[in-house]
């Protein structure tokens, strides 16, 4: 096998993530929400009461992109924007009661999709995979916080 035919870590991670999303979308299509809408609901379920800017940062989305998603989710009754108690400019985001059963269903579909992805791996392999991916993520978070010049020096020095 030539070096060019061996997939790199970045390509493998990207392809695995893309296929996980695709399979989840196949399973969840009947629920009528896009992957981006699911992503907003899932993250909002862990940080209800966050303001739009904070949620955009966590999702790594441009604020205008998030506003469009929120407008749609609000129009179909899955989220509500509430006024901030001390800052009139901010709106705080909350799930509605209608969103909770959908999130339960989405989590179940996610579990099924993950089981498909991990088929054939032992529980120990799964634990190792998660641990290694967390290490990679931590390394990249730390690297993104360093200036580029500093990153280059750290690579050169070991």
UniProtKB/TrEMBL annotation:
Keywords of the record: DNA-binding, Transcription, Transcription regulation
UniProt KW Transcription keyword: yes
Residue stretches making up the HTH marR-type domain: 6-138
Keyword DNA-binding: yes
Pfam families named in the record: MarR
Gene3D superfamilies listed in its UniProt record: Winged helix-like DNA-binding domain superfamily/Winged helix DNA-binding domain
SMART domains associated with the record: HTH_MARR (SM00347)
Name this protein carries in UniProt: MarR family transcriptional regulator
Natural source organism: Azospirillum endophyticum
Record lineage: Bacteria, Pseudomonadati, Pseudomonadota, Alphaproteobacteria, Rhodospirillales
């Amino acid at each position: 096998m030539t070096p060019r035919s061996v997939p790199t870590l970045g390509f493998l991670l990207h392809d695995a993530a893309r296929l996980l999303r695709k399979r989840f979308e196949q399973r969840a299509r009947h629920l009528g929400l896009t992957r981006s809408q699911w992503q907003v609901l899932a993250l909002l379920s862990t940080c209800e009461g966050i303001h739009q800017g904070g949620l955009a940062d966590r999702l790594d989305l441009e604020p205008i992109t998030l506003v469009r998603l929120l407008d749609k989710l609000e129009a179909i009754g899955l989220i509500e924007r509430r006024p901030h108690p001390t800052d009139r400019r901010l709106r705080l985001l909350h799930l509605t009661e209608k969103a909770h059963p959908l999130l339960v269903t989405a989590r179940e579909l996610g579990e099924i999709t993950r089981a498909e992805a991990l088929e054939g791996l032992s529980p120990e392999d799964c634990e190792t995979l998660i641990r290694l991916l967390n290490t990679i993520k931590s390394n990249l978070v730390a690297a993104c916080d360093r200036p580029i010049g500093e990153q280059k020096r750290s690579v050169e020095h070991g």
